[in-house]
Write a structure and sequence with these properties.
mainly alpha, elongated, about 70% helix, single chain, about 0% strand
Length: about 90
């Protein structure tokens, strides 16, 4: 495939990618809260399973958001310049 899709490369459109994952995170938190509350009232197995799955999805989305925040061009430049985000070896 000879088509170059810039958004698929790390460091490009990171703000958009963060926004997409924040939206998914918000939806996962709302759905998880609903399913947890419903499970606490009705104790139906599928609600408990859904609550666990939405909790896992919440963690998954947080990991993706952190990854995209680290890939922001300004963050990469500050690390390359020896900013506070880098660990300097002991002398």
């Amino acid at each position: 495939m000879d088509v170059e899709i810039k958004i698929l490369k790390c460091g490009n459109c990171e703000e958009l990618k963060i926004g997409v994952h924040v939206t998914a995170l918000t939806l996962a938190v709302v759905c998880g809260a609903y399913n947890t509350a419903a499970w606490l009232l009705r104790r139906e197995r599928h609600l408990g399973v859904n609550a666990v799955l939405y909790s896992a999805l919440t963690v998954w989305e947080v990991v993706h958001i952190v990854h995209h925040c680290a890939a922001l061009p300004s963050r990469r430049e500050s690390r390359a310049e020896g900013g506070a985000d880098t660990v300097k070896p002991a002398a």
